[in-house]
Write a structure and sequence with these properties.
245 residues, 2,3-Dihydroxybiphenyl 1,2-Dioxygenase, domain 1, globular
Length: 245
């Protein structure tokens, strides 16, 4: 599958247990990976494999965390972060440098390079780009995904919707980071990823952040989780319509 590709969406919540229950009931996923490393940042988490894409939910376990401050700004549980897999470390670093994008986290392992971008330089969400060895592995999904691609269900994320005060500017910035072009149609803005996924940027009316995720193969109707609308992929909906004819 082509790169760049959206691999992980991160939510933040005040109640991790309730969020996990909602995720499991809506998406039919189980047995999350709990990364003890996030405790260093004052957080607890759960990471669910949704096919070979991933849904993480974070919850503050101490005062004054970045995620906690973000929830205060958003007024509660919210979409927080999106992580992409990209294909070329040298080209990615050169592109970020040319754009003046600062890194707030630069972490390397033999199987992955993980770059977190400064939110003041790339607005709308915390954005991370990762280079994986082999392509398709995903260390953040748990031990089975470290330098490997285990068997997985044929489901996954197909799209993301981000609200912005200035949709054109945000779409242009994300496109520059990912090395893509902006699609503009009657005032609406989108990015088409080589993976077949799509990022839509909408007017936020005062709200800026992740507001929607589309999922293929795991939902029959939309559901709200941690302030984010999860909906069946349009591709899946079209397929069902054809099957019903």
């Amino acid at each position: 599958m082509g790169l760049p590709r959206m691999r992980q969406v991160v939510l933040t919540t005040a109640d991790l247990t309730a969020a996990c229950k909602a995720i499991e009931e809506a998406l039919g996923v189980r047995d999350p990976f709990h990364d003890s490393g996030v405790g260093h940042f004052g957080l607890a988490n759960a990471v669910y494999a949704v096919g070979d894409t991933f849904l993480e939910v974070l919850s503050p376990i101490r005062e004054d965390t970045a995620a906690g401050r973000y929830m205060q700004r958003r007024g509660g549980d919210a979409g927080y972060m999106v992580m992409f897999e990209v294909g070329d470390e040298v080209a990615t670093r050169s592109r970020l440098e040319a754009l003046g994008v600062r890194l707030v986290h630069d972490n390397s392992h033999p199987d992955i390079v993980d770059l977190h971008l400064h939110p003041k330089d790339v607005p709308g969400a915390i954005v991370a780009v990762n280079i994986c060895t082999p392509v398709g592995s995903w260390r953040w999904g748990g031990p089975a995904w470290v330098g490997a691609i285990p068997p997985h269900d044929p489901i996954g994320f197909t799209g993301l919707t981000v609200a912005a005060d200035e949709p054109a500017s945000l779409a242009t910035r994300w496109a520059g980071v990912l090395g893509l072009d902006v699609i503009e149609d009657s005032g609406a803005y989108a990015l088409a990823l080589p993976s077949g996924q799509r990022i839509d940027v909408t007017s936020g009316d005062g709200v800026e952040g992740i507001v929607g995720v589309t999922v293929e193969g795991a939902l029959t109707e939309p559901v709200q989780i941690c302030g984010v609308r999860f909906a069946p992929s349009p591709v899946l909906g079209e397929r069902r319509s054809l099957e019903e004819q």
